[in-house]
Automatic annotation (TrEMBL):
Residues 121-257 form the F-box/LRR-repeat protein 15/At3g58940/PEG3-like LRR domain. Residues 24-60 form the F-box domain. This is F-box domain-containing protein. SUPFAM superfamilies: F-box domain, RNI-like.
Length: 472
């Protein structure tokens, strides 16, 4: 019997049916690793080992290890089975599959703190440059206390813990000497401890994150103090009662949070250049006359030629109780950065607005900084005509004299052209000697070119020939 040694030669018939040379496996290793890196999960990369022995030795050399379809209870064992030594791992990304489980969920499938902490330690042992971890909320049973282990080489960490009761702790001795970027979602954490062990941190993003102390007492005041931070993002959907920021090298600040009542705000960031700040009020406690404060926004310029602005939203309702000092003091808390535009969004609900606007303009920090005034009136179908004793006319604003020497442009949208609106325009013209342009946009159903109100608007500008009027 004659035996043949060496590679078998394929017949012309097999070649014609697609069983030709394996051209993909002949590619260089670097190209094949790029192919494997494009697969959605490292388990899929491992399964390519069925193609040939050469593929089996490739996937352990991946520098980016992504898990997206491996159950949590199996994941730690998979990490421990990775061949050693591994190449320098640039990324470990852990996402869990959405499993359809019976209800109630079997106890053996539920996730506890011990399994989560053990998995994090296994990932830390691989020393990735970037680490991303998302906790599976559908498998959690009650609150978890998660201890964050040392990631010595990590420059970026992202922890998405979802809206569950998770307390993130930093054990004694844990450090992140290379960490430059940290993202946290939905947890309670000791922010001071995280910052103190991250001396190179440049970017901090917190979304629905709350502070705790050593006694695990949750605080609705979020405090961030760092000498290295250059970008800070704070996004909250649950109400806060305070924000305290000390960041001497901070360049960019983004903050959005709701408040139930008065808030405590302290921002010490002398080098900040870009600000996007928004606070929404959901209680009725911040009022002036009939006006309730709804939102304050502070925004620096986003493009060349744009001016930084302070935006105030308020709505009128006669059931409110006047607290003049509270209203203005609350607005002043948000004025920690320079602005040149005052943007007022007023929902009138049948009430007049002159008293409120001039009360705001009377603030020293506003009248000394403002170069442009925008008033956007959201009129209701109720005809505006308050009684002499209505709180919206409570301050005798028509007789006020305010020095608006820096203001150069005024824009009013929703002007009705009635006596109140005419008096408001007259007082603006009187108080702003350097005004160059006024844009008046009439409300639907307001004055038209044939109305007396519109004629009166044109007439009052005859005495101010240096002011350009744009009426539409």
């Amino acid at each position: 019997m004659h035996l043949r040694w060496g590679p078998r030669r394929r017949s012309p018939r097999l070649l014609a049916q697609g069983g030709g040379p394996d051209l993909i496996s002949d590619l260089p290793d670097d190209l094949l690793l790029l192919v494997l890196a494009g697969l959605p999960c490292v388990s899929a990369a491992a399964r390519t080992g069925v193609l040939s022995r050469r593929w089996r030795s490739l996937w352990p050399r991946l520098r980016q290890i992504v898990f997206s379809d491996v159950p949590l209870h199996s994941l730690e064992a998979v990490l421990d089975r990775l061949p050693r030594p591994l190449p320098l791992v640039s990324l470990i990304k852990i996402r869990f599959p959405n499993e359809r489980l019976p209800w109630p969920i079997p106890e053996e499938r539920l996730v506890d703190a011990a399994s989560v902490n053990s998995l994090l330690r296994a990932a830390a042992r691989l020393e990735p440059e970037e680490f991303e971890f998302e906790l599976p909320t559908n498998l959690l049973d009650g609150p978890l206390i998660v201890d964050l282990p040392c990631f010595h080489r990590a420059t970026s960490i992202l922890l998405d813990l979802h809206p569950v009761d998770v307390i993130l702790r930093v054990p004694t001795g844990v450090e992140f000497p290379a960490l430059e970027e940290l993202h946290l979602w939905a947890c309670t954490a000791d922010i001071d401890a995280l910052l103190s062990c991250s001396p190179r941190l440049r970017t901090l993003c917190l979304s629905n994150v709350y502070s705790d102390n050593d006694d695990l007492a949750v605080s609705a005041t979020l405090a961030v103090s760092s000498a290295s931070l250059q970008e800070l993002v704070l996004l909250q959907t649950d109400w806060m009662d305070g924000v305290n920021i000390v960041a001497p090298t901070l360049r960019q600040l983004t903050v959005s949070f709701p408040a139930m009542e008065k808030v405590s705000i302290s921002v010490l960031a002398p080098m900040v250049e870009m600000v996007a700040w928004r606070c929404c009020y959901f209680e009725l406690s911040i009022v002036f006359g009939v006006w309730r404060l709804e939102q304050v926004t502070l925004q620096t310029a986003e493009r060349p030629g744009q001016l930084p602005s302070l935006q105030i939203h308020a709505s009128a309702n006669p059931i409110f109780v006047s607290e003049e000092e509270t209203f203005m003091h609350e607005i002043e808390k948000h004025m920690f950065a320079e602005f040149s535009v005052l943007d007022l969004h007023l929902e009138t609900n049948g009430h007049v607005f002159g008293a409120l606007v001039f009360h705001v303009l009377g603030m020293n920090r506003i009248c000394s900084a403002m170069q442009k005034l925008k008033v956007i009136l959201q009129r209701s179908s109720v005809k505006e005509g308050c009684s002499p004793h209505c709180p919206c006319e409570s301050t005798g604003w028509r007789s006020q004299t305010i020095s608006l020497t820096r203001i150069k442009e005024v824009e009013i949208s929703g002007c009705g052209g009635d006596d109140h609106d005419i008096d408001f325009l007259k007082l603006i013209l009187k108080c702003a000697p350097r005004l160059k342009k006024m844009i008046v946009k009439l409300s639907d159903g307001g004055a038209s070119s044939s109305d007396d109100g519109c004629t009166n608007i044109y007439n009052i500008f005859k005495a101010y020939s240096s002011v350009e009027l744009c009426l539409s």
